[in-house]
Amino acid sequence: MDDTLRPLRNQLVELNLKHLADHLEDALLAASCSDKPYAELLHEFLDVEIRQRRTLGKDKRLRAANLPTFDKPLDLDGFDFGKRTGVTRRQIVELTSGFLWIDKAYNLLFFGSSGLGKTFLSCYIGLRAVEAGYHVLFISLNDLAHLLRTEHALSRSRTRMKQIRACDLLILDEVGNTILERQEANRLFQLVSDFYQQTSLIVIANKGFEDWAQTLGDNVVTAAVMDRLLHKCEIFNIGGDSWRLDNQQSILRNLAPESGLETGMPAPRRPGRRPGNRSSTGIERPIPVEGILPDQRKRRIRTE
After folding, report:
1. Rounded distance between C-alpha atoms, residue 121 and residue 75, angstroms
2. Given 58, 190, 267, 277, which residue has the most CB atoms within 10 angstroms?
3. Which DSSP category does 282 fall into?
């Protein structure tokens, strides 16, 4: 870098405009070849910094969100709304086109049996929220119960719970698959109370409210949790057939072309065995030593 630009670069770094400092020479070169007004040039300079910060911030939020991976792209084209009831494409588009519901701490509840895409839709909403600048976290009820149980004993759990309490949207998966102990249920109730009218929740459950008492272990705690979740909430009861069963993969059907099974190709021979060493009755015939018939070999062994 030219020594005349070094003081300017140092000033940009001191102002925490590191990305603009890294592209200072390119920005000045483009400005020298342009006849744009100074205000517009300054706007373009600062836009370099803003775009880079937004990109890095989105990547950081996406890593922190801990969204699960799927075997297909996380977009609405991967969800077959025609085979599902209780949710429409328009509803999901409306939820992700603007996140006023997150600003006002509304909740979303997705109910339905396994394999209906509840987690897929929830993570799609979470991804769009991350891209819009919100802090999102995904966690299962079982993992959350572990964090609540070990928060006072493990620094890692305390750190993670601090992130959860500071997020804008918490996606809680597998509600109904885990039976909580009484102390864990009380701590979950306290967390939901802290989130009430402050932080949005997306709850994914394969059991209805009538079965939540079994999960939380107490009717009073269950009623208190439901009361806070349902006050400002949108509920989706999704029905249909499991996409996993619709797309069931069979070993013989899907892997046969690669392995040669049921394709007319001969089965691979075992190593060390020659073809044609069985008789018509299926009994193995001895493999003759070169130049010696089987009977001769027996007599030769006796004489030796």
Report:
1. 9
2. 58
3. S
pLDDT tens across the length of the chain (304 residues):
567 778 878 878 888 888 778 877 877 877 778 778 878 877 887 888 888 888 899 999 999 999 999 888 899 998 989 888 999 999 999 999 999 999 999 999 999 988 899 999 999 999 999 999 999 999 999 999 999 999 999 999 999 999 999 999 999 998 988 888 888 999 999 999 999 999 999 999 988 888 888 888 888 988 999 999 999 999 999 998 876 666 666 677 666 665 555 555 555 555 555 554 554 445 455 555 455 555 554 444 444 4
What tokens does 136 get? Answer: 């999102």
Strands 239-240 and 136-140: unpaired
**Cα 273 from chain centre:** 49
Integer Cα distance of 124 and 74 in angstroms:
6
Q: Helix and strand tally (H, E) in the chain?
A: 15, 7
Which residues touch 290 (CB under 8 Å, ≥6 apart)? none
Which residues, 6+ apart, have CB-to-CB distance to 273 below 8 Å?
none
Residues listed for the chain: 304
189 close to 95: Cβ distance less than 8 angstroms: no
Phi-psi region of 197 (alpha: psi -120 to 50; beta: other; left: phi over 0): left
- Specify the CATH architecture of the domain 76-246: 3-Layer(aba) Sandwich (3.40)
